[in-house]
């Protein structure tokens, strides 16, 4: 597949019954990888294509994120696949995970997409660099779009468990957004270094991190999901971080510039206690995104943008 940009949905598989169901991660998990003209469902060990969600009729359009949206428990309807990047599609899926409908909902760059509270059943949101936050939530029998004005441009975002409070980064600052009322309130928390790319959190440990591509740093943030966060630490990691992920008190980041990755352990005060930077497997070039599989093998998956592939790593921490 050409130009895989982002890896998502590592521990979820397409299942029967009209839903996307969680699985026990086997020795060969299934991955959804976004890239040129869409996304593929792949076997992590063999690279075999299991499902094809590419728009072959499109010109060369790059997608950065692909998020599967299951039917919430107790509901009926069709699951979907959200693909965002230089264009945006919501793909309708049938009971066995085959695409039956491609619905384009936006032209122009969408910079980030993430699950609400890292839970696919709660829905997702995506940012387009504008002053709006766009959400996908379950409405009766399908996934539907919602939009509300932020008043500030949004590059990347994370939400609390209810999807009512958000941390937003733009080109200059970290911001706290309270959307519990009809008019969201925005509070600037702290300035950021010159090139922030992504923010991610693990709400179970109140830990968040922000990647800074140009300065090869991560900013660490403590957030309880309800009140304003605090910026706690800034650390050096593998060069050129874009994608990051957090699992408990451990943060991983990929070095787009030096083909390495960093594993950072954080204490209860959200300050780094150990940073271990390692080489990626030979041939994984310009890694863009990185993801914990949250399995007993302590596995990671890394997208290798510069070499059109991915790296599947086990026992890395």
Can you lay out the helices and strands and say which pair or pack?
Elements: E1 6-8, E2 12-14, E3 20-22, E4 30-35, E5 38-43, E6 49-54, E7 63-69, E8 80-85, E9 87-93, E10 99-107, E11 112-115, E12 124-127, E13 132-139, E14 142-149, E15 156-159, E16 165-169, E17 173-178, E18 185-191, E19 196-202, E20 207-212, E21 217-222, E22 230-236, E23 241-247, E24 250-255, E25 260-266, E26 272-279, E27 287-292, E28 300-304, E29 309-313
Antiparallel strand pairs: 1-4, 2-3, 4-5, 5-6, 7-8, 8-9, 9-10, 11-12, 12-13, 13-14, 15-16, 16-17, 17-18, 19-20, 20-21, 21-22, 23-24, 24-25, 25-26, 27-28, 28-29
What can you tell me about this protein's structure?
With 317 residues, this protein is mostly beta strands. It has a domain of 138 residues: YVTN repeat-like/Quinoprotein amine dehydrogenase (Methylamine Dehydrogenase, Chain H, 7 Propeller). It is 0% helix and 54% strand. The strands form eight sheets. Strands 1-4-5-6 form a four-stranded antiparallel beta sheet, with no helix packed on it. A four-stranded antiparallel beta sheet has the order 7-8-9-10, with no helix packed on it. A four-stranded antiparallel beta sheet has the order 11-12-13-14, with no helix packed on it. The N terminus is likely disordered.
């Amino acid at each position: 597949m050409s130009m895989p940009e982002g890896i998502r949905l590592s521990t979820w598989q397409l299942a029967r019954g009209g839903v996307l169901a969680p699985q026990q991660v086997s020795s060969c998990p299934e991955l959804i990888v976004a890239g040129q003209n869409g996304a593929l469902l792949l076997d992590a060990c063999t690279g075999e294509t299991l499902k094809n969600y590419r728009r072959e009729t499109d010109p060369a359009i790059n997608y950065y994120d692909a998020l599967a949206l299951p039917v919430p428990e107790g509901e009926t309807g069709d699951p979907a696949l959200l693909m965002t990047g230089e264009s945006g599609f919501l793909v309708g899926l049938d009971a066995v995970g085959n695409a039956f409908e491609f619905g384009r909902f936006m032209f122009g760059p969408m910079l980030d997409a993430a699950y609400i509270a890292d839970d696919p059943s709660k829905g997702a949101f995506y940012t387009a660099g504008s002053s709006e936050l766009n959400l996908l939530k379950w409405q009766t029998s399908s996934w539907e779009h919602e939009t509300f004005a932020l008043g500030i441009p949004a590059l990347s975002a994370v939400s609390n468990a209810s999807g009512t409070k958000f941390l937003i980064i733009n080109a200059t600052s970290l911001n706290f957004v309270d959307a519990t009322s009809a008019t969201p309130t925005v509070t600037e928390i702290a300035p950021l270094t010159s090139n922030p790319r992504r923010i991610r959190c693990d709400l179970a440990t109140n830990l968040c991190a922000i990647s800074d591509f140009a300065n090869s740093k991560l900013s660490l943030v403590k957030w309880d999901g309800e009140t304003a966060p605090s910026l706690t630490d800034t650390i050096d990691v593998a060069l050129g971080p874009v994608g990051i992920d957090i699992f408990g008190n451990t943060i991983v980041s990929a070095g787009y510039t030096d083909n390495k990755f960093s594993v950072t352990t954080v204490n209860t005060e959200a300050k780094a206690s150990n940073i271990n930077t390692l080489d990626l497997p030979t041939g994984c070039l310009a890694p863009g995104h990185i993801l914990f599989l949250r399995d007993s093998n302590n596995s990671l998956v890394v997208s290798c943008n510069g070499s059109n592939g991915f790296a599947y790593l086990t026992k890395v921490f």
